[in-house]
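Q: Structure tokens for this one, please.
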Amino acid sequence: MTQRSQKIRERAQAELRRRETLYGEFIIEVSRLTADAFEHSLEHPNSLVNVYAIAGRIHLVASAPVMKTTEECCRHIVDLYSRPNMTIEQIRTALQGSEHPLRAFEAACRVELDQYVI
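A: Here is the predicted structure, written as tokens:
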């Protein structure tokens, strides 16, 4: 019984680490692309390949709320690239707001990851 409980805990911890790493990769890539989109238009669509590849990996393992917020982040990045370049003041204002979909992604991930804490 004790060994079985230990194995369950070990699997949960491994899954927690795997998802934390995956979600962290997505957060880094979304942040990088968001900063780039503030100052540039989308001249090379292949710059979105990595974020969509990570999003695809997320869709293989994530809960519905995490998948939904992943899609919202990707749409937000494409929308940012389609807008005119922003001034420093506009960037500051945008970053201070809580409407960025990355905040919703982070919250959804936290709820999901909390289920692996035993």
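A few notes: Residues 2-39 form the longest helix (38 residues). DSSP finds five helices and no strands in the chain.
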